[in-house]
TrEMBL record:
UniProt membrane topology term: Multi-pass membrane protein
UniProt entry keywords in alphabetical sequence: ATP-binding, Membrane, Nucleotide-binding, Transmembrane, Transmembrane helix
MF GO annotations: ATP binding; ATP hydrolysis activity; ATPase-coupled transmembrane transporter activity
Family annotation (InterPro entries): AAA+_ATPase, ABC1_TM_sf, ABC_transporter-like_ATP-bd, ABC_transporter-like_CS, P-loop_NTPase, Type_1_exporter
Gene Ontology, cellular component aspect: membrane
Top-rank lineage group of the source organism: Eukaryota
Domain ABC transporter: 75-320
Location relative to the cell: Membrane
Predominant localisation class: membrane
Name of this protein: ABC transporter domain-containing protein
Pfam families: ABC_tran
Organism of this sequence: Alexandrium catenella (Red tide dinoflagellate)
Keyword Transmembrane helix in record: yes
Length: 327
């Protein structure tokens, strides 16, 4: 056997081994993806059909226009205890009580790890509390199968990390209009949301306007532009409850100011209950009430002027941190 044949055999064996390793890695990724999909689908479908209309304050429907006609919804957390499944020994919420009237704009203020973002996850039905109740418009969203799915149709959520799909801007905004079959209604909802979120300000300068592809995960857009598209997507649903979960904390100063402008106009013109989850005092400009969360409980709650005039120790700590970061 010649040296050349030996080298060729070794090279082919190496190539075959590398290919096999790549196949096994891809197989593992596919299995992880399938497991994640099963978890997501089980949450979205709630394990059962929708409840009967008689058990809810409105007929179960995905139509954004139907939800909007009902007006803002009240939100209530009653004695909620919660720990994440991955950390069952760490209590995130400890008997938390919070009552948000319909139409109120409430800031959920707290330091990192205080449990404030967990409220958004519970409200969306992504997790169930270990004890206590979460109610939307008087409906316990975990009492019956299908209630959580109903509650999600009342919500619009804008998170810290804007998530866009490899679609056009128009299609990304319309993505939240599940169940709306009428093309004219979809188009009107998209145009209204785009205008309210100031998406048209930058879309008009793009080659194809709203039909411009956003790119993979929205890479064709800046952080502020992506967040405004996400705001428009949430508004297109005409939600009864709008949740802003650290919606501007990951943006630079210029992008944050643009998003602030859009949100201020939205909150002043839209009829919905609003929860602003934040660790920044600057976000309080949008709200009329403040709930300070500390160690899984509501440390202070009331009108903004009253809370800021007589801050609890947890709020004083946040105020000092905010002043230090400003310096």
């Amino acid at each position: 056997v010649s040296i050349g044949s030996t080298m060729s055999l070794a090279m082919y064996c190496f190539m075959a081994g590398s290919s096999y390793t790549g196949i096994m890695t891809s197989y593992g990724d596919i299995q992880k993806g399938l497991g994640a999909c099963q978890k997501v689908l089980s949450i979205l479908h709630g394990g059962a059909a929708a409840p009967e209309p008689s058990s809810l304050p409105s007929a179960y429907t995905p139509l954004a226009s139907a939800a909007a006609a009902l007006g803002p919804a009240a939100v209530r957390f009653e004695g909620v205890n919660f720990a994440y499944p991955a950390r069952p020994d760490t209590q995130v919420l400890r008997g938390l009580d919070l009552d948000v009237p319909a139409g109120a704009r409430v800031a959920i203020l707290g330091r990192s790890g205080s449990g404030k973002s967990t409220l958004a996850a519970l409200l969306a039905g992504l997790y169930a509390p270990a004890a206590g109740r979460v109610l939307v418009d008087g409906v316990d969203i975990f009492a019956e199968p299908g209630n959580a799915a109903w509650a999600r149709h009342q919500l619009g959520v804008i998170g810290q990390d804007p998530t866009l799909f490899t679609l056009t801007l128009r299609e990304n905004v319309a993505y939240g209009l599940d169940g709306v079959e009428d093309d004219a209604e979809r188009a009107a909802a998209v145009e209204d949301a785009v205008r309210a979120a100031h998406v048209n300000e930058f879309a008009s300068s793009l080659p194809q306007g709203l039909d411009t592809p956003a790119g993979e995960r929205g890479r064709a857009l800046s952080g502020g532009q992506k967040q405004r598209v996400c705001i428009a997507r949430a508004l297109a649903r005409r939600p009864r409850v709008l949740v802003l979960d650290e919606a501007t904390s990951a943006l630079d100063m210029r992008s944050e100011q643009l998003v602030h402008t859009a949100l201020e106009e939205v909150l002043s013109s839209r009829s919905c209950t609003c929860l602003v989850i934040t660790h920044r005092l600057s976000a309080l400009r949008w709200t009329d009430r403040v709930a300070v969360i500390d160690e899984g409980r509501v440390a202070q709650y009331g009108p903004q002027e009253e809370v800021m005039a007589y801050p609890c120790p947890a709020l004083r700590s946040i105020m000092r941190s905010d002043a230090d970061s400003a310096d």
